[in-house]
Write a structure and sequence with these properties.
By secondary structure, this protein is an alpha/beta fold. The chain folds into two domains: 11-86, Fe-S cluster assembly (FSCA) (GMP Synthetase, Chain A, domain 3, 2-Layer Sandwich), CATH 3.30.300.130; 109-358, 3-Layer(aba) Sandwich (Rossmann fold). It has eleven helices and 17 strands. The chain is globular, with a radius of gyration of 22 Å. The two termini are 21 Å apart.
Length: 369
């Protein structure tokens, strides 16, 4: 709240100072981007909305504070009320395959891949999904690991998908829509299928599941760069991909392959996430780099991809996954929980940057009352 006893302010003055507030990712001011909505000037009382491209924006509060400060400093302003909202834009699908499946209600489809197993890719996927949902986004998870589905267990989802009018309705947990082979296979029974059968079921998961309206659909990719991965890369309307790795070289070797696979099919890389990067001793607080150090940064620099961030080792992460309660849901204010929230915002921001670079981001017009 700001108070000033001088003359009343005009809309033009408000817009001029708001034109000095820059979106740090899109590198443009919020007025030219069309973020300012419902501007109302009543005497010295100023109200307006700032409509961002994602509810998970990592600098939302900073932008709000800057808007309040600049408008509040104008002569004639008595009060400033800024309402932060979001409108997630729809990405243009990336890739070159002619047989791509259309998902009309899904705005962004993001593949989370690793190139190899054991790096915590599924853990990263579900916690990013929960963080996005907590921020107010509509989120879904497609568990594309047909042979080793783990998302139902880690999300604590035990219900079965419903089949209505020839459409599969995904299970919902923590406000997230989920589809996985784990819902369909019998407990303890392996899925022993050849490539064509896996290809068929992945296409069904994309085309016959009633995903509805989603801001983000995260695909938990199977490890490797074989038939299943290529099917998804060429069939799903991917907006971009995230590469998950651990710091040691044995993980980086396969992460490079996974990254190159997406580039070979013209799917942009949103960034690299380094998982299990370090361990903080709960007793002495000393930081130990169990799996070497800096691997995520090395591959990001080598492959010219953004390093989205590093996630430390925390026993709570493993315990939460085994109990079907992701750490972002059960311990949102923990160090790892906060790290995932920041990563979710950075992933969403990278999608907005890609939209702007590809010309798919269309600023909406200014509105005021």
């Amino acid at each position: 709240m700001f108070w000033n006893s001088k003359e009343n302010v005009s809309e033009k003055q408000v817009l001029k100072v708001l034109g000095e507030v820059l979106d740090p990712d899109l590198k443009k001011d919020i007025v030219s981007l069309g973020f300012v909505k419902n501007l109302a000037v009543k005497g010295g009382d100023i109200q307006f909305d700032v409509e961002l491209t994602t509810p998970a924006c990592p600098v939302k509060e900073e932008l709000k504070a800057e808007c309040e400060k600049k408008v509040g400093a104008l002569e004639g302003v008595k009060s400033v009320s800024v309402n932060m909202t979001a409108n997630v834009r729809k990405s243009t699908p990336q890739g070159t395959a002619p047989g791509r499946i259309s998902l009309p209600g899904v705005k962004n489809v993001v593949a989370v891949a690793s190139g190899k197993g054991g790096v915590g890719k599924s853990t990263v996927t579900i916690n990013l999904a929960v963080a996005l949902a907590q921020a107010g986004a509509k989120v879904g998870i497609l568990d594309a690991d047909i042979y080793g589905p783990s998302v139902p267990l880690m999300m604590g989802a035990t219900e079965k998908p419903m089949n209505q009018d020839g459409r599969i309705h995904p299970v919902e947990k923590n406000g997230i829509k989920i589809m996985s082979m784990g819902f369909l296979a019998k407990d303890g029974q392996p899925v022993i299928w050849r490539g064509p059968m896996v290809h068929g079921v992945l296409q069904q998961f994309l085309s016959q599941v009633e995903w509805g309206d989603l801001d983000y659909l995260l695909i938990d990719m199977p490890p490797g760069t074989g038939d299943a991965q290529l099917t998804i890369s060429q069939t799903a309307p991917l907006s971009g991909a995230i590469i998950v790795t651990t710091p040691q070289e044995v993980s980086l070797i396969d992460a490079r392959k996974g990254l190159m696979m997406f580039r070979n099919v013209s799917v942009p890389i949103l960034g690299v996430i380094e998982n299990m990067a370090s361990f903080s001793c709960p007793h002495c607080k000393e930081i130990s780099h169990i799996f070497r150090h800096g691997g995520g940064n090395r591959i990001a620099e080598e492959m010219k991809a953004p390093l989205l961030g590093s996630i430390p080792i925390d026993p709570l992460v493993a315990d939460s996954g085994d109990l079907g309660a992701p750490i972002v849901a059960t311990h949102p204010d923990s160090a790892v929980g906060m790290r995932y929230k920041r990563l979710a915002g950075d992933v969403a921001a990278q999608l907005s940057v890609l939209q702007a670079q590809s010309g798919g981001f269309q600023p909406t017009s200014l509105e005021w009352h």
